[in-house]
Amino acid sequence: VARLLKVLKLRPRRTIRAVLFTNEENGLRGANAYRDAHKAEVANHLLAIESDSGVFRPTGFGLAAGAPPQARADLREIARLLAGIRADRIDADGGGADIGPLMREGVIGASLDVDGPYFNYHHTRADTVDKVDPQELAACVAAMAVMAYVVADMPPRLR
Fold this sequence. Notes:
This protein is α/β, with parallel strands linked by helices. It is 35% helix and 14% strand.
């Protein structure tokens, strides 16, 4: 996503930060370390999006149940931009383990929703890169890029 935005020379009003967490299954150490290292700037985080369901055809985003109504309305409007790839749903629940520590600090949480048999592969020997469909990967990147860019470039803060 970051590379795509750079190639397109898109510079939003606000910073987009990509974070690769580690150690989710062993106590969320990466997520907790990120939160702790950036505690002073957590108030500047507008939205945390987790992608942890594999790379299959994106269907939209799940938005955490506690998200403010205006944020839900804003994300529904943004998601309309993804109708062409059928990734325009905003589901009632979203988030994820790795963004949980940020969400507990008040950051709005969302997740990329995909349609695929993730748990046929998850933590098995079959979980290998040859299962990734390049078109589905590109659609996931597009969905994340659109959501991240528009949220970061909105004149008012997502609230």
